[in-house]
Amino acid sequence: MAESGVAPDGPLAPLIAFARDLRERGLPVGTGRILTFCRAVAALGLVDRDALYWAGRTSMIARKEDLETYDEAFDEWYRSMGTGGELRIELAIPGGPDEGEPEFGEQPMDLEITVGSIAAEWRGMGDEDDDEELDEDASIRIVASGAEVLREKSFADLSQEERARVAALIRRISVVVPVERTRRTRPASTGAVFDMRRTLRRSLRTQGEPFDRAWRARKSRTRPLVLILDVSGSMSPYARALMQFAYAAMAAGRRVETFCFGTRLTRVTRTLRTKDPDRALHEIGQQVEDWEGGTRIGESLKTLLDGWSQRAALRGSVVVLCSDGLERGDPELLRAQMARLRRLAHRVVWVNPLKGSPRYEPLARGMAAALPSVDVFLSGHNLESLEELSRALGS
């Protein structure tokens, strides 16, 4: 039994806080409407501001005179999240046996809702509109057990239905690339460089007196992001999930390059730029001839560096290499190529799904040879670790 006054935990806590704020402002928002609001978010996976606004308005507001109060409360609540334009609420709740995602209005089966001491299923919980005010001490506790299980569950242990839902959540991950300051400058109100030309041009308005001085500041741009994905046989349980992450990373900008390798290197950037992720993965499966084959990390890196080391896409970039480090080639070649890559890149991130095991030690020849040139060493075995990777890229 949930104790009185206990705040809701988990990814739905902000939704419950918003609904309670509406109730405190005098709006008739009962438990039934709160559950309907949460059910809409859980079923549709809403993450952007407009979708959350309309989900709350349609499920919790019934009177026209309440719209102004709702708008003010929503704006204050959304700003208080400090999201910088996007509130990410992800609920990985498995769907039915035949579909990867539930249809509109379908019951998320693994979401348990407890109101006081009463536990009930999602289905039918919000069918009756509860307009009665409940006691202020009533406790609402929502346990999104399915969400937490999927976030922490290894990709290798997922069922087919869970893979479909996790893939959708991976594609929603926001990948932010660090910003670099270039040597080129731009006109600015303040800056470290005096703009003689613009100052002289402005002085013509004041009879040659340079009263209005102009300045220039250095330009900023996002650093290139290079993803190098191991699709060999030993990485088969994780390759598709990492490819979904690469698809999500394409939204970070035009300066994103993606390569796959097993025994040879294949560029798949253009294929991933399509709007249909399933079609992109299907085409990559046909394009990459050595999918689920052997592993030649050193030779693949040498091919990349020989062909791309003089290009802007690699110099000063953030390089993410996803591999278990089970090198079948010469580890000394891998050591040399990793050192060469480290000299070119701004940061090298190695993602190894085997690191997700608490007993893992980087004793494999390939991993031991590569680690001295790695800046950040992360696991990539589940959804939670990929979210950690996205945060590491932006830091």
Provide a short characterization of the protein structure.
By secondary structure, the protein is an alpha/beta fold. Helix content is 38%, strand content 15%.
Commentary on this structure:
- This protein is 38% helix and 15% strand.
- It is built from 14 helices and twelve strands.
- A hairpin with a 2-residue loop joins β1 and β2.
- The protein starts with 12 loop residues before the first helix and ends with a helix.
Proportion of residues in β-strands: 5-15%
Question: Mean pLDDT, as a whole number?
Answer: 79
Query: N-to-C terminal Cα separation, in Å?
Result: 41 Å
Structural class, by secondary structure, is alpha/beta
Helical fraction equals: 25-40%
The Cα radius of gyration reads 26 Å
Order of helices and strands: HHHHEEEHHEEHEEHEEHHHEHEHEH
Total number of helices: 14
User: How do the strands line up in the largest sheet?
Assistant: 9-8-7-10-11-12
The main β sheet shows up as:
6 strands, mixed
Anisotropy-based shape: flat
> How many DSSP E strands?
12
Unreliable sequence segments: 1-8, 92-145
